[in-house]
Amino acid sequence: METAPGKTAGFGARAIAPEDQPKYLNSSESAVFRKGSLLFGLPQARSSIRERKEVLVAEGYLDVLRLHAAGFTNAVATCGTALTPEHARALARFEAGVVLVQRTPDGFSHAVAEELGSRGWKVREVAPGETTAEGNDVAAVVLVFVFVVVVVG
């Protein structure tokens, strides 16, 4: 895991095999490694976010890797937490649209959409087959994603 400027803050891992435990293993919370403020992949996605004026926020590390492999290099993820006000502030600095990408309809989107809506962001749900601001259908390219919420700041 890296801070926004790209300095190492800690480490995170996810088990691949369903029987492996623990499923997630992260560095301990510290003054530098604060999951509620870090966005996985942000240093790598920064230039693409600025270029595309859009950031995809996924649920986990592997989701970001899949999105990047599919050409969505503007993808980041929370680090095992819900989207926090600190995350929202970091994303707002880009002055870009925010697309919340999740694998299931009951993932983080409803609470996040309400929170961001209460802060004045425009929120709308996008069904599979609809497109992002660039005309990309995230759900069609990355098949594990079946539900998307678009938040335009």
Topology:
Layout: E1 12-14, E2 24-26, E3 39-40, H1 42-52, E4 54-58, H2 61-69, E5 75-78, H3 85-92, E6 97-102, H4 109-118, E7 122-126, H5 138-141, E8 147-152
Parallel strand pairs: 4-5, 4-6
Antiparallel strand pairs: 1-2, 3-5, 6-8, 7-8
Sketch the topology as an H/E string, one letter per element.
EEEHEHEHEHEHE
Helix content: 25-40%
Mean pLDDT across residues? 75
**Structural class determined from secondary elements:** alpha/beta
Instruction: Indicate the overall shape.
Output: globular
Largest sheet: 6 strands, mixed
Q: Low-confidence stretches at least 5 residues in length (pLDDT < 50)? A: 139-153
Quickly count the helices: 5
Beta-strand content bin: 15-25%
Task: Compute the number of strand runs.
Answer: 8
As laid out across the biggest beta sheet, the strand order is 3-5-4-6-8-7
Output the radius of gyration: 15 Å
Assembly status: single chain
Give the end-to-end Cα distance, rounded to a whole number of Å.
Answer: 26 Å
